[in-house]
Each structure stands twice: as structure tokens, then as C-alpha cells.
Amino acid sequence: MKYWLLCLPREDILNCMRVGTFGLSRKVLIGHVRKGDRIVCCAGKGDWKIVGLGTATSDYYVDDSKLFLKEGVFPDRFDFEAVSIPSESEVDIKAILDKLSFVKDLAFWAVSFRIGIVKLSKSDWDLIRDRARVSQAALK
């Protein structure tokens, strides 16, 4: 099992959670997602909050049907189900940056989130899940 953080503007990540699909226009990392992998949904672009946790329900696939709010084609995809975190319990990414293994330079931390999907370590996943107070049982 692998762990992934998806990061888009709030409106876009909430739409992905609603439709149950995440897509990009490049296969580089998204092509490694497999059914059963754990997913963290992050509202970025000035918000920087964890808004959902879930599980990939499909492997990577290609589909160019229009599902997303942003203009463009995002054919590289996988499906997932995520539990929404109540707004009062959303995890502030900035408060845990120094504990996330994939953030290499705190001065330029936002670069780590720029490509839309980031591979997490198990310890990153555990930290975020614990902060969000979402039980393992709630994540199918």
C-alpha cells in the first residue's frame, strides 16, 4: 500500500471528492496509484487545509471525459472515495510542515505541493490521519 496527497484549490479538490475521481494531464506519479492506496485531500492555493481522507478504488487509467471544473483535459486518472473532514477539524498543513518527510526546505515548502500529487511516507499518513481524527475503520 502507498500513500498519496492530492492538492488542488479547494473548489477543485471538493469536486474531485464529490465525483470520486482525480485527474491530471501527466502520468508521472499518478500512474503509480493502485486500488487500496490511501489518499489525503488537500485544499491548496492559499487555503492549505486537509479536507478529506480516503482510499483509491481503482488503479490508474486514461479517460478524457469532462468531469472537472478547471478547463482542460485531465486524462490520467484514478477513482477514490474520501471521508470529508468537518471544517472545524481540517488540518492546517502549515502547522505540520516541519514534520512532513517530503518537505525538504521549509523556505520553499509550497513547491512540494505544486504538481497536484505527492507520495507520502506511512509516518506522514499516520500524522495527518491522527490530526484529522479519522479512524482507520472509516476508510474503507
From TrEMBL:
Q: Where is the EVE domain?
A: 17-129
- InterPro entries associated with the record: EVE_domain, PUA-like_sf
The organism sits in which domain of life?
Bacteria
Q: What is this protein called?
A: EVE domain-containing protein
Q: Which organism is it from?
A: Candidatus Obscuribacter phosphatis
